[in-house]
């Protein structure tokens, strides 16, 4: 079951663009939560095991990979969000 309403087949192009822009905005608002999950949960999972004995190289590789992923996602979603209004409208629906 979808949380956001899906546009009806007879919805206008402007309504579909507005809904797409809203969904992209929601994805942007969820990025900090994804960052918390990517940074905190692995640290909590590895804090009591053998990785806590000094295996920092894999952790640093993971940390920077997760950081680059978040930066890339933020840039891509920001690009989509700013260019959502600039997409040309298709043929008019009657």
Question: Biggest sheet: strands, sense, closure?
Answer: none
Mean residue pLDDT = 78
Number of E strands: 0
- Helix percentage range: 55-70%
Integer-rounded radius of gyration = 20 Å
Structure annotation, total helices: 2
Low-confidence stretches: none
**DSSP strand content:** under 5%
Q: Name the structural class.
A: mainly alpha
The span between the termini is 30 Å
For the record, the count of structural domains works out to 1
* Principal-axis shape: elongated
Order of helices and strands: HH
Keywords: Membrane, Transmembrane, Transmembrane helix
Protein name: DUF485 domain-containing protein
Transmembrane segments: 30-53, 59-79
Descriptive report:
- Keywords: Membrane, Transmembrane, Transmembrane helix.
- This is DUF485 domain-containing protein.
- The chain crosses the membrane at residues 30-53, 59-79.
- With 94 residues, this protein is mainly alpha-helical.
- It has one domain (13-82).
- Helix content is 65%, strand content 0%.
- The chain contains 2 helices and no strands.
- Helix 1 (13-46) runs antiparallel to helix 2.
- The longest helix has 34 residues, at 13-46.
- The two termini are 30 Å apart.
- The mean pLDDT is 78.
